[in-house]
């Protein structure tokens, strides 16, 4: 992407002021870095680094090019957010604050890397530069970007300029894909980092920062809509129910786990790789014996279904070995990783949606970490279980994007020097 080339309508104003952020009711909390940048300032993400570099060059066209590519966060009182969410709103009500730096009221917008942990009130919602331009009413007349941080800037309103930058921004935001790490104010080692890394297949595939527990996602409105759409979660009680089921491995199909446990027992008994024919025959005997012990007739249709499942699993495993997810002759231990890998993300979604607090989210992440370590022996072992669960649930042996997305993400996590699967030990 070219930065600082050409000029939009009007003249890009330079920044004013430096220093701390008062903010509406402390909406964003204390920023990670205050005032002037130290000699070796560590930007939280690439977004803040690019803003800082453009600011230091005095290249305000480039500064706005960066803003046009990313989500911008603004605070809203919880009661107003609840009301707008219930009515299907997305949040265009902005609350001004008095900035002593410029001596004016400003609307404050923040980028993802400088946000403090979510609180119950106020909540944050996301917007973008184009939306700000289209909804600008000029009162107050100033905008504050990341106030109180080394990459801060203050600008008078100029909707035509903002819209010009928004219109030429790429369709795919710069920070929506790839392995993204919060370098300041988030765990990089230790138990919480391990738990968050268990959720990395899903987080990285979604374009989220993998290691931020203080998660805002795409803001209060979008995170609530996402939980409703994908999970049917519209209340704290339902979030708690699903979170508990995930950290205890209760959402994964009992049939999947029973079938894989039969093979594990055979492997312990005979050692090495289990032949699929022996696996099918033994599974049928166990199912018929269980039915007899329960005083029930064996279900031939259920037995046939489990035999078909064994065929599906063996074909997925063959593909996993060909693609490097499993080692040669390797087999999937368990699909419980499908739950344990979603659990840290459910914790973060609940936090961003206001269904839990930071303490509850951290507890869920730590429990997912412990359960994963108890069940699996390595990141590769864990990944194979997660990807198998995802494929059995969604893919129907099409080897479509439900599989290929995970394959790409797996390779990224296993092969990148800054990946948590490289830097965070399994145990």
Keywords:
two-stranded antiparallel ribbon, 3 domains, alpha+beta, 427 residues, 17 helices, 6 strands, four-stranded mixed beta sheet, elongated, single chain, disordered N terminus
Question: How would you briefly describe this protein structure?
Answer:
With 427 residues, the protein is an alpha+beta fold. It has 17 helices and six strands. The chain folds into three domains: 24-30 and 42-167, no CATH class; 191-251 and 336-417, no CATH class; 254-323, no CATH class.
Question: Would you kindly provide a written description of the structure presented here, covering whatever features stand out?
Answer:
This protein has a 4-stranded mixed sheet, with no helix packed on it. Helices cover about 50% and strands about 5% of the residues. It is of the alpha+beta class and about 425 residues long. It starts with about 45 loop residues before the first helix and ends with a helix. It is elongated, with a radius of gyration of 25 Å. Residues about 1-35 have low confidence and may be disordered. It folds into 3 domains: about 25-30 and about 40-165, no CATH class; about 190-250 and about 335-415, no CATH class; about 255-325, no CATH class. The chain has 17 helices and 6 strands. A hairpin with a 7-residue loop joins strand 5 (about 140-145) and strand 6 (about 155).
Could you outline the blueprint of secondary structure elements for this entry?
Blueprint: H1 46-57, H2 60-67, E1 72-76, H3 78-86, E2 97-99, E3 104-109, E4 123-127, H4 129-135, E5 142-145, E6 153-156, H5 159-167, H6 191-198, H7 200-205, H8 220-231, H9 236-247, H10 254-270, H11 276-293, H12 300-323, H13 337-352, H14 358-375, H15 379-395, H16 401-415, H17 420-423
Parallel strand pairs: 3-5
Antiparallel strand pairs: 1-4, 2-3, 5-6
């Amino acid at each position: 992407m070219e930065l600082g080339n050409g000029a939009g309508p009007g003249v890009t104003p330079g920044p004013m002021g430096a220093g701390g952020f008062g903010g509406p009711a402390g909406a964003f909390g204390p920023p990670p870095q205050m005032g002037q940048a130290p000699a070796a300032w560590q930007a939280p993400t690439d977004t803040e680094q690019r803003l800082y570099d453009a600011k230091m060059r005095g290249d305000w066209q480039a500064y706005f090019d960066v803003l046009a590519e990313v989500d911008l966060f603004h605070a809203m009182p919880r009661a107003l957010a609840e009301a707008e969410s219930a009515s299907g709103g997305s949040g265009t009500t902005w609350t001004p604050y008095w900035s002593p730096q410029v001596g004016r009221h400003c609307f404050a917008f923040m980028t993802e890397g400088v946000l403090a942990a979510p609180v119950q009130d106020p909540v944050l919602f996301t917007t973008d530069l184009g939306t700000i331009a289209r909804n600008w009413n000029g009162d107050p007349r100033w905008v504050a970007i990341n106030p109180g941080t080394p990459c801060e800037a203050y600008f008078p309103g100029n909707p035509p300029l903002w819209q010009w930058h928004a219109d030429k921004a790429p369709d795919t935001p710069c920070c929506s894909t790839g392995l993204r790490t919060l370098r300041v104010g988030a765990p990089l080692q230790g138990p919480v980092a391990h738990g968050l890394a268990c959720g990395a297949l899903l987080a990285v595939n979604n374009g989220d920062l993998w290691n931020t527990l203080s998660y805002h996602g795409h803001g209060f409105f979008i995170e609530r809509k996402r939980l409703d759409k994908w999970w049917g979660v519209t209340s704290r009680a339902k979030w708690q129910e699903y979170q508990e089921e995930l950290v205890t491995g209760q959402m994964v199909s009992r049939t999947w786990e029973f079938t894989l446990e039969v093979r594990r027992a055979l492997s312990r008994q005979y050692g090495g790789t289990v032949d699929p024919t022996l696996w099918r025959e033994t599974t049928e005997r166990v199912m018929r014996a269980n039915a007899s012990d329960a005083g029930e007739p064996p279900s031939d249709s259920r037995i046939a279904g489990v035999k078909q499942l064994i065929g599906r699993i063996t074909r997925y495993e063959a593909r996993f070995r060909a693609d490097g997810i499993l080692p040669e002759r390797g087999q999937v231990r368990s699909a419980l990783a499908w739950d344990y890998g979603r659990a840290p993300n459910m914790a973060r979604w609940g936090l961003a949606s206001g269904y839990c607090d930071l303490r509850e989210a951290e507890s869920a992440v730590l429990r997912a970490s412990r359960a994963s370590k108890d069940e699996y022996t390595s990141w590769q072992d864990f990944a194979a279980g997660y990807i198998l669960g995802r494929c059995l649930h969604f893919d129907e042996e099409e080897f479509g994007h439900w599989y290929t997305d995970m394959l790409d993400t797996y390779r990224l996590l296993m092969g990148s020097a800054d990946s948590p699967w490289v830097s965070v030990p399994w145990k």
